[in-house]
Specification:
single chain; alpha+beta; globular; binds zinc ion
Length: 81
Amino acid sequence: MDREELLSHYEWSAGVCFRHPAAGEVATAVIKILYPKDGGREVVRACQDCVIDMEAQRRDAALEGGFSYRPGRVGQDLRRG
Ligand SMILES: [Zn+2]
């Protein structure tokens, strides 16, 4: 699976990556929405490098655990955890 194909599973818009806030606004995908106890809504975004990185980790974990790997589900996995 190449990088472009992986990235095509996500919707991209300008935002700040949760791992790289110093980089400022870059192309990001929403990977998680948090609802803090004190109200409000916090959107967690990741840049393309981070999404590729997280997909690689999911793929490795799936291979180790004997699960099937499907790209484009970084957000779903995070929500479950
Ligand atoms: Zn990043």
